[in-house]
Design a protein that fits this description.
The complex is a heterodimer of chains A (about 425) and B (about 375). The longest helix of chain A has 19 residues. The radius of gyration of chain A is 31 Å and the shape is elongated. Helices cover about 15% and strands about 40% of the residues of chain A. Chain A has about 425 residues and is mainly beta. Chain A contains seven helices and 25 strands. Chain B has two helices and 18 strands. Chain B is globular, with a radius of gyration of 22 Å. The interface between A and B is large, with 61 and 89 residues.
């Protein structure tokens, strides 16, 4: 009897286990909407610039001079507008003595018999320089002595030196614009600077009959230009190779100024009544929000937040090619009140989380249109960080800032026509306290 | 034997399949009432409930435990819902009754039980549109509810005479409900939306009952419950208050023919007293539950005689759809497997429920049931 009970028990327990192990099919909602509850209320509100923007300004010369990863040397005309830029490369410290392993004291360099500047060409996204970038079959790089007795940021004095004293040049065919290119320079010029303890500051330009634009890597880009020369002292010989470097006559050196781009001829600065992003020198737009706490610092959930900016068509350097308006997130606390300083602390939102990505607005700056910038994920991040930890600011910049003369012009909160001012359109779901049937 | 059964029970309890449902007729309002019936009583159409010691309905019926023991019940429901838009099939897991009893002499039996009063476990998935200004964006919304209001009863049965027992029970109604809404939009400018809420319930009640055996072949039972206050809390904040439904019922079991048990019951429950527990306009109605069944001696199974059961039950579910009452008719079948000389038993049952057609929506369900009763 006992054995039979055991068998029966085992059989039933087995059936039970099989039943318990079954997993259900998840919901299909065939009976919706008749039986499905609808407990959420979705609301939409439009916050005008006067209600939601604490500040919106153009940051001229942002990013700061010298912080470019690539240096654009260009001379071309596009849609009737000329752009001419040069790169300033500094060698403030030079090797002026020769030492060897014989134990003799260092000996001053007396002569130089070979000298060249080596620049590293940035390969375009298309893979090579085509006729849209270098319109002739060859391009000439020209080096000038642009040393000026002026302050570090007195670029006007440096600009005047372009085209005055040429110290080197080299013509390169378009197909050879790749890798490292050596531009010979006047050994006498260099030797005198080495002997006299003077710094060498060179201006690099391109010359081409029909226009050219070439990008070279900067120190910030990780592959700066270098100065290489063969020097002599007595009977000894030395091969020197120096990367760009700089010193300051008054105070610590500003390392980023070891190489930078200088606008030699181009468009005028943007007008004061618009927000401008892009161009050469580049500018960025700084926007600081003052979002009502009832929306962002409450149990309300913002599900969409679109910043609507009216774009004013800018025909300078007009082209069919599109440029992207890129959104960056300012990671500064409220204590950083100066927009220029706060903008330095901006990052690509993806650097924080992939889910914070803000899609680019890819458009031609010459179009007149409404640019919509989705900021919902950013607002959720701000909410999670709290109002004190992080200021609620963004930076808008051109995807080709410093490399493309075109600028986005966007109407600001001071636009005469109120309908053209920025707006923040928010869709949100109030805390519903759902649950009771 | 006891050890093996305990292992089987633990295994059964440990396997907790995720429960889900969708917009259904039976899970409206605060949920579906499984009925507080044992597997055996369910197989008999609920007819045995007033005299069944394993159904936490009549506290006087605890007397039939005779010896101390434990009871656990497992009842998965396989539900299908059909509408003009299609059909869905789901499976919901329940452990609707857990009970224990101890005897104190020949005249007193004390029982402690927990049973599901209302099971609010379901999940809906639907597609809708969010309208924002002139735009609209499609979303997929998953709305999940998982929880129940449970009836915890401490009951005492006392013998006035060997054939007349009275019983009283104190009830605590508790439980919680975890709800979650998640919306994901195909429009990437919308962020995913997730909101969660937890409701908890607390209420009381008293019950009393009597079982009387006027002859060896007949057992009569009657019981009632008076509901006290029941409160819903969100976090620690009271958000609604109502009265636990009162109920009363009568039932009879007749064994005058050898090898045959005939049983029937009528039960009324005043569900409408829960109206204030929900939002204004909650559709809830008082309901009758009427049913009966027969049990006969069946064939041998591993050398043991199997009682076979069949029943029919007709009841109204407490929560309405747009004012329309939902009627549930069910046929049930089952068998019992005595173990250890009859001291313990495993009951198996299957119920086919038809919940009518409302607004073009019909719902049917297979409810399987396994009850494990152990008396050392």
């Amino acid at each position: 009897m006992l054995t039979r009970s055991w068998r029966a028990l085992a059989a039933v327990a087995g059936v039970t286990l099989v039943l318990a192990g079954c997993q259900e099919d998840l919901a299909g909602g065939a009976a919706c909407p008749a039986l499905c509850p609808d407990t959420l209320t979705v609301r939409d509100t439009v916050l005008l610039a006067s209600e939601v923007l604490e500040r919106d300004i153009t940051l001229l010369g942002s990013p700061a001079i010298g912080t470019e990863a690539q240096l654009l040397v260009a001379d071309y005309v596009q849609s009737g507008d000329r752009l001419r830029t040069g790169a300033v490369i500094r060698f403030d410290s030079l090797q002026r003595v020769l030492t060897d392993t014989t134990g003799k004291p260092p000996r001053p360099i007396t002569s130089i018999d070979t000298a060249s500047v080596h620049i590293n060409i940035v390969t375009p996204a298309s893979g090579s320089y085509d006729s849209t970038l270098v319109r002739d079959s060859a391009v000439t790089f020209v080096l000038y002595d642009v040393n000026a007795d002026a302050g570090d940021f007195d670029t006007a004095a440096v600009r005047e030196r372009f085209g005055v004293t040429q110290v080197g040049s080299r013509t390169v065919t378009r197909d050879s614009l790749t890798g490292t290119i050596a531009i010979p320079i006047d050994t006498g010029f260099l030797a005198s600077h080495v002997r006299d303890g003077e710094r060498v500051r060179l201006g690099l330009e391109v010359q081409s009959d029909n226009g050219a634009q070439v990008r070279i890597f900067s120190a910030e880009g990780g592959s700066p230009a270098s100065l290489q020369y063969v020097a002599h002292a007595d009977t000894s010989r030395l091969s020197a190779a120096l990367s760009v470097n700089t010193r300051s006559s008054n105070g610590p050196p500003i390392r980023s100024l070891a190489d930078y781009v200088l606008l030699l001829e181009g468009a005028a600065p943007p007008p004061a009544d618009v927000l401008a992003a892009g161009g050469i020198p580049s500018s960025r737009i700084f926007i600081r929000f003052d979002i009502p706490p009832s929306l962002i610092d409450s149990s309300t959930t913002i599900v969409r937040a679109n910043l609507e900016m009216h774009q004013q068509g800018n025909d300078l350097y007009s082209s069919d090619d599109t440029v992207a308006l890129v959104t960056r997130l300012v990671r500064a606390t409220k204590a950083v009140d100066d927009p220029a300083q706060a903008a330095v602390l901006s990052v690509d939102p993806i650097a924080i989380s992939q889910s914070f990505a803000v899609p680019e607005v890819r458009v031609s700056p010459s179009e007149t249109r409404v640019d919509t910038i989705p900021l919902a994920h950013i607002l959720l991040f701000w909410k999670s960080e709290g109002p004190e930890t992080m200021q609620r600011s963004i930076v808008l910049q051109s995807s080709s800032q410093g490399l493309d003369p075109r600028r986005f012009y966007l109407y600001s909160s001071d636009a005469a026509d109120e309908s053209l001012r920025p707006k923040l359109r928010i869709t949100y779901i109030p805390r519903s306290g759902f649950g009771l049937p | 034997m006891r050890h093996s059964l305990a292992i089987a029970l633990l295994l059964s309890a440990a396997i907790s399949a995720r429960a889900a449902a969708q917009g259904t007729l039976s899970t409206q309002g605060f949920g579906y009432p499984p009925g507080q019936l044992s597997t055996r009583a369910t197989s008999l159409g609920g007819g045995l409930a007033e005299t069944d010691p394993l159904s936490p309905v009549n506290p006087a019926a605890i007397s039939d435990w005779v010896a101390s023991g434990l009871y656990l019940q497992y009842s998965p429901e396989y539900r299908s819902v059909e509408s003009g838009a299609g059909s869905d099939n789901t499976m919901t897991v329940r452990f609707p009754v857990l009970m224990g009893a101890v005897t104190a002499g020949d005249r007193v039996v004390i029982g402690l039980s927990t049973s599901t009063l209302l099971d609010r476990t379901w999940e809906t998935s639907r597609i809708g549109y969010t309208h924002a200004g002139a735009d609209s964006a499609q979303f997929v919304e998953d709305f999940t509810s998982s929880g129940a209001i449970n009836d915890i009863r401490l009951g005492v049965a006392f013998a006035i005479t060997p054939s007349l027992w009275i019983g009283a029970g104190g009830h605590v109604f508790s439980g919680d409900d975890r709800l979650k809404i998640r919306r994901v939009s195909a429009d990437t400018t919308f962020t995913p939306f997730l909101q969660q809420s937890r409701l908890s319930y607390s209420g009381t009640g008293l019950s009393g009952g009597v079982t009387w055996r006027p002859s060896p072949a007949l057992v009569l039972g009657a019981s009632g419950r008076v509901g006290g206050d029941i409160t819903t809390f969100r976090n620690d904040t009271s958000i609604s208050k109502a009265t636990v439904p009162s109920r009363w019922g009568v039932g009879a079991s007749f064994t005058g023919v050898s090898g045959l048990l005939v049983t029937a019951r009528a039960d009324w429950e005043g569900w409408s007293s829960l109206g204030d527990l929900g939002r204004p306009g909650l559709g809830v109605t008082d309901a009758w539950d009427i049913g009966g069944g027969v049990e006969v001696n069946g064939p041998l199974f591993f050398g043991l005689m199997l009682p076979l059961r069949a029943g029919y039950r007709h009841r109204t579910l407490p929560f309405t759809v747009s004012g329309a009452e939902i009627v549930e008719n069910s046929f049930s079948f089952g068998a019992g497997i005595p173990i250890s000389g009859g001291r313990s038993r495993i009951d198996l049952g299957v119920e086919r429920a038809d919940r009518g057609s409302i607004s073009g929506i019909s719902e049917k369900a297979w409810i399987l049931s396994a009850g494990f009763m152990v008396r050392p």
